[in-house]
Specification:
Elements (H helix, E strand, L loop, with lengths): L6 H15 L5 H6 L7 H4 L3 H4 L4 H8 L9 H10 L6 H12 L9 H12 L5 H15 L9 H9 L4 H4 L5
Length: 171
């Protein structure tokens, strides 16, 4: 009910989840499990995440426990959010969580720096990175606290028409 996939697509994702499970569990172990989970290092082998600079953050946000393990429900939720049919507000919520490295409900200097380093693969000089972070904060934050709340983040995304087309993973 809470997915943007058809039943056929859900079945295809379930098959994929089970194939990935076989990389970690034996068929006998898997049959005994009522709710198998995938460890993060197995999820990270997926082609869709291998080249994504935020793969570890994506896995963390959609995982079901502190170790980063993911049930099929988390796996399905991850692909649902990155589905082209997912609405902007759902994508914004999860994008914010992915970029909020310290989990404090704000995007502050450290979060922005880590995001920028991943996007640019650390190719910027320190001065360039600082200039970009300053400009982002000037543009996005509205209450002069030098951090971006989720509401401020949503406001910025409302002015970014390409956000929906770039925040997806093809299945």
């Amino acid at each position: 009910e809470c997915t943007y996939f058809t039943m056929k697509e859900i079945k295809r994702l379930y098959k994929r989840f089970m194939e990935l499970s076989l990389l970690y569990y034996s068929p006998t172990e898997l049959k005994k499990m009522s709710r198998p989970t995938l460890p993060p290092h197995i999820i990270a082998t997926m082609a869709e995440l291998k080249v994504n600079p935020f793969a570890d953050r994506i896995i963390h946000v959609f995982s079901d426990d502190v170790n980063g393990c993911m049930t099929f429900e988390g796996f399905l939720n991850m692909f649902s959010v990155f589905n082209e049919q997912a609405p902007r507000d759902v994508k914004a919520f999860y994008a914010f969580r992915i970029y909020d490295f310290d989990g404090d409900q704000y995007l502050e200097h450290g979060d922005l720096l880590r995001t920028l380093e991943r996007i640019t693969r650390r190719s910027l000089k320190d001065e360039e990175a600082e200039l970009i972070i300053t400009k982002v904060l000037e543009e996005a934050e509205m209450d002069d606290d030098m951090k971006i709340s989720f509401m401020e983040f949503e406001h910025v995304l409302s002015r970014a028409p390409d956000f929906l087309s770039t925040f997806h993973i093809r299945v």
